[in-house]
Design brief:
Largest sheet: none
Low-confidence stretches: 4-10, 12-16
Shape: globular
Helix content: over 70%
């Protein structure tokens, strides 16, 4: 087997062993996510109304609509900085992400207050729960880019799989107990927020030096600016669909794109493997 790998490496001029190993973990990560998403969609279809699922999707889409404030494109900038030995860039980028997440919390609180005023406590409390956990959920999400930069795709895959399984188990349990939209949002943000915080703290132990990258924050903000329209458009459609056509239509659409989105994520993660080899 080793001779075959060496032969392919020579013929293809790429590190076949590297791509084979890390592509497995990327496939594992997305496979678990796809299965968990499928089971969750079945649970929503059988245990909740379309309105409940649509409102749940609406709250999360609204939260991720303003996710650009947490500078999500730190993912590539941070991974590149860490790959070049600037481990303390994790703290640099996390500080900015948390500050942006606090702004997201304020926006979600205002939206929640509006729905409370309009007499819809389900959506109102859903936005309140999202606002409460956003600094953990989005602000500390920099840990995954750090792991990618360290080329620890196995850690990244296991952590992502753990999040997918935890989310599915939590939400399916809540659906079995006939939870309403506010409690479903609460389960999602609590499971993922607390888990993200724990994994960020665990990842922090991998920092081996105090080197920083003076350009990582500016580069991350620049990349986020370039991708701003794409990020907003990907979630704005859900928000507008719910507003103009209703939560039931949004629920049907959200279920229909689960598999295509999983395939898209798989392809993007394979690209990330290649990027870190070239970094």
């Amino acid at each position: 087997m080793q001779s075959i790998i060496l032969y392919l490496t020579k013929i293809l001029s790429i590190d076949v062993a590297y791509f084979a190993k890390n592509s497995f973990w990327v496939s594992f990560r997305n496979g678990v996510g796809m299965i968990a998403g499928f089971l969750l969609s079945v649970a929503f279809a059988r245990l909740a109304s379309k309105t409940t699922y649509g409102q749940y999707t609406f709250v999360l889409s609204s939260m991720y609509l303003v996710n650009f404030l947490s500078v999500p494109r730190f993912d590539f900038a941070l991974a590149q900085a860490v790959a070049n030995g600037a481990d303390r860039s994790l703290l640099q980028t996390t500080r900015v992400s948390v500050m942006g997440s606090l702004l997201i919390s304020l926006i979600l609180l205002i939206v929640g207050k509006r729905y409370m005023y309009l007499g819809d406590p389900g959506l109102g409390h859903g936005f309140y729960w999202a606002a409460l956990l956003v600094p953990l959920l989005l602000g500390l999400n920099t840990f995954d880019a750090f792991l990618v930069g360290k080329k620890k795709f196995d850690w990244s895959a296991r952590f992502a799989a753990l999040g997918s399984i935890g989310t599915a188990v939590g939400l399916i349990t809540a659906l079995w107990l006939h939870a309403q939209v506010a409690y479903l949002v609460a389960v999602f943000v609590i499971v993922n927020g607390v888990l993200t915080g724990m994994l960020w703290w665990k990842t922090r132990t991998l920092m081996k030096n105090d080197r920083t990258d003076p350009e990582v924050v500016g580069y991350g903000i620049y990349l986020t600016g370039l991708a701003l329209m794409t990020m907003v458009a990907s979630k704005l459609g859900n928000v507008l669909l719910s507003h103009f056509r209703g939560a039931e239509i949004l629920a049907t659409y959200a279920i229909a794109i689960i598999i295509p989105r999983a395939i898209q994520n798989l392809l993007q993660n394979l690209v990330d493997v290649a990027k870190m080899k070239l970094a």
